């Protein structure tokens, strides 16, 4: 069922390549058989001591032609099938991207969004193995099977039926039994491995605690014992596989004997020249061997199950989705001063539990707001609501009187975001910053880099602005990476900037410096800054405290210092040695 | 075969066993071919089916026996590989615990787990496959050549001559493919990672308003990747082509020469047929050797990584007895130096200080000054390059002692919450603690409200697979552990850096309660804690630049004062 979406449409879309790959694969196997057939014929014919070598000239040419043909076909087949799969992969990537793009911001998972999406990307890569290792070999084997049965049927129906049954053991029975037994075993092993994986990760993550508790030798012993239990399961599977393979070989032997016996019988009755006995026997060996790996191929499909499931999940609508088609696609006049209003804004992931409750406030153009609250108090959610990426349960956010939900498609024109750990792409610094405004000239990029005080550092790098961001990840500190992201936002040049704890994880001195740069460079813009402590709040026009979904304190720094005891106490924690 | 394999414990008898079984297997292969050839030849001469029943039976028995031998060999290899990996696993995990958290953090937790779980599995597969394949490749073709030499020298010469040509071609083409891939490596990496990169950065793209149009880039890059890959594959597949080509060509040639021999009457039909049947068998081990080359390569690399870890020098915690820390105890550090081979973290230089009794020591400094290193040194996770500790009268080269670590509570920035119940998490250090004792600890740590809100109270699963706790709640679990353990020494490494200000304010009260009557080392950026410290150690660039109380240090207007000023900032 799930396979239909990720496989069938593509088989159809690239049916020519698919057909060609299967055809070439089949021909490769058949040519291998033909080579042995001709060789057998050649030898038998020669054994009749023909007067001239010319009598066996045709088989001599045939042997060479089939031999070379096989090598060439197999080479071409591999290229075609890879080209096919790479084309599918291209389409799958686009499909996955289009599926997750609308929900990028609202995806709710235990993982961090980026990790989850990275996992999906790997799933797509894994699908190529499904095509190359399972789908193609199965189809090719089935085709060769059909050809062999039809060919033998041309001579004798009973023999064809016998082969149908015998080879059927290799093509249907073996794989089916394996699928049931090995797949089940594989699943148990996988489950046990996952449990062990978690346990071991748990141990390594808590390594300091284990060492200090002094109990770690016991932990190691437990772990090793569990691994041994797992080994026991693998051994059972191995035993089954061994006996199954032995059985397949037995079937192969019997089929070869049956073919020779049949050919011998036919020769005896004069229905077949005796020179064909060796030919048939040898070609059978070659063809039958190609069916042997089938059981393995089919039973290993359990590996792909997780990937299919995850991809299916990504495609489903279970996630919170901000369907952009419902947006009215309204716009705001350029260069206008933007007024943000939150009216009775209420949000929760379920109707019962509200993360934010009837928030009312408005933010004037150019106003600087700090939002403070505990983790889980809904600070980041508030930012997403302001951008219209989450639908409020009731109430609304308006910019200049327009509901933000309707502005969503063009939101990047009005609002930009600086995150906790801004994502920097695996490309040059220049390209990373230019993402803020793809039309910006090199000069403009340099200008914003000067503003965020990165220019000097960048031009000292061996490749300057062309230095790759990821490669030199070691060279860029957390503060510098945030500055690159800030430069990008400066290029984006929106009237409103949302800052979502941009200094978290930085040491206090770096934090103070970065905040200074941020406030200096964004002084003309509306700022909504989510923060978890009070360094730098003096520069804000207004500070909002969020507590259990409502605004618990609100006002300027000076006002709060004068009126709120709690605020004074918190402020002194951050500024312990000031009056 | 990889030389390192020969150093594996007990591999020699295994190789001997496999070798003799393979010789026996070669005999079966030849017998199988011979019996089949005999049967076909006599049918060809016009004998009736019943007369060849013996030969056919021998054929089938030889075939079965050959496969049984294969199973036996597989089992021997499987068993040996499993044994090897089991013993490696145990020493590897032990080594990791001896190397300590510092090492694991640097190597990356995820990578370490993957190496132990997946890497060892790959290495096991590698041993399992490689020993059998190597045996097959060295014995079976040889046996077939010897047999052919005996009966038809020409065929043997053809087969023998093709092998080196084939191997040389495969190597040459493999090298060509690799050099092409190497040349394109950079582009490749960019292209291959582009999609992952795009998905990971999707949120950012969306904020930048670029996510819609980015589809075009994905299409374009995917297509470029496809053509680049195909052009490399064209060369890479040539090596398999060469294998196929030479195999097929030599089988064809052998067939022709056998045919000519038969026409001349130089050899009898059964012999010719036997050699023809054996020809593909001759090449089979080589083909198998080349198959799942990448799997074996992965396994080999994993093996190398594992032995690299095993050769690291680690600190073995000493079981020697040390006194319990009491208010009259003294600890001094003399000229301690710590140096990291890779300069990711600052080391320590000439660390010198003296403590007596239960004091609160603040450790402060800019990031990279060596605060965490000092805490790691004090907890016995790492040992100094030079210098020594002195505990009362006893001189020690490190603090990696069971008796020392038993006295420590260690609270890092993100205390690890085990995937277990709340109660078991809290009594991690004291598995025998009673429920009542845990409840007391919960009360002291200010967790009572949290526990009451949980569906199953203290029995609720927390951690990775259970209920997730906030950063502040995780810190409180660590504090509860400390209350329960009543250990006399507490080491803290940035315990509040990532917490919001309100949570930190609440935690501060609880923590101060915990500190009373204990020896506390508190490394942090957050200066407000320094007021509560009896002594402050100011680190800069791995060196102690100042010590004293907050008051003293502020008056000195030196490093500490500058640090306070810098953090204040002037907005």
Overview of this protein structure:
- Chain A has 579 residues and is of the alpha/beta class.
- Chain A has two domains: 2-315, ABC transporter transmembrane region fold (Up-down Bundle); 336-574, Rossmann fold (3-Layer(aba) Sandwich), CATH 3.40.50.
- Helices cover 62% and strands 10% of the residues of chain A.
- Chain A is built from 21 helices and ten strands.
- Chain A has a six-stranded mixed beta sheet with strand order 6-7-8-3-9-10, sandwiched between helices. Chain A has a four-stranded antiparallel beta sheet with strand order 2-1-4-5.
- In chain A, α8 runs antiparallel to α9 (275-289).
- Chain B is of the alpha/beta class and 571 residues long.
- Chain B has four domains: 1-150 and 293-314, no CATH class; 153-266, no CATH class; 330-407 and 490-571, P-loop containing nucleotide triphosphate hydrolases (Rossmann fold, 3-Layer(aba) Sandwich), CATH 3.40.50.300; 417-487, Rossmann fold.
- Chain B is 63% helix and 11% strand.
- Chain B is built from 18 helices and twelve strands.
- Chain B has helices at 11-44, 53-107, 109-151, 153-183, 185-200, 202-207, 214-264, 269-290, 293-311, 371-378, 402-405, 422-426, 435-444, 448-453, 471-485, 501-515, 550-556, 559-568; strands spanning 330-338, 348-356, 360-364, 386-391, 394-396, 408-411, 420-421, 461-462, 489-493, 519-523, 535-540, 543-548.
- In chain B, the strands form three sheets. Chain B has a six-stranded mixed beta sheet with strand order 6-9-10-3-11-12, with helices on both faces.
- In chain B, α13 packs across α15 (471-485).
- The chains are: A alpha/beta (579), B alpha/beta (571).
Shape descriptor of chain B reads elongated
Low-confidence stretches of chain A: 318-322
* Annotation, overall tally of beta strands of chain B: 12
- The CATH H-level homologous superfamily of the largest domain in chain A: ABC transporter type 1, transmembrane domain
Helix content range of chain A: 55-70%
Number of domains of chain B: 4
